Amino acid sequence: MLRVTGRASRDCEGWTRRNFVQAGALGLGGLALPQMLAARADAAAGHRPPLRPGCEGTSVILMW
């Protein structure tokens, strides 16, 4: 696994669960990044997403 910081591991050592979690997190972050940046640009421009028809803005507190 390629590491940005620290020591790079060899291929013969195999992958650990931590390596799989890190790779999965990087993949999910890569998929979510364009949407997060678009939302940030919309917020900076003052755009608000429309509410569903018939729904009012309601605050809800969920207690588990």
Which tags fit this structure?
64 residues, mainly alpha, 1 helix, 45% helix, elongated, TAT_signal, DUF1501 domain-containing protein
End-to-end gap = 39 Å
Q: Which outline best applies?
A: elongated
Structural class: mainly alpha
Helical fraction: 40-55%
- Poorly predicted segments: none
- Largest beta sheet, briefly? none
Number of helices: 1
Q: Per DSSP, what share of the residues sits in E-state strands of 2 or more residues?
A: under 5%
Q: How many DSSP-defined strands?
A: 0
InterPro entries: TAT_signal
Organism: Schlesneria paludicola
Protein name: DUF1501 domain-containing protein
Task: Characterise this structure.
This protein is mainly alpha-helical and 64 residues long. The protein has a domain at 16-45. Helices cover 45% and strands 0% of the residues. The protein contains one helix and no strands. The chain is elongated and about 60 Å long. The protein starts with 16 loop residues before the first helix and ends in a 19-residue tail after the last helix. The model has no long low-confidence stretch (mean pLDDT 79). It comes from Schlesneria paludicola. This is DUF1501 domain-containing protein.
SSE map:
Layout lengths: L16 H29 L19
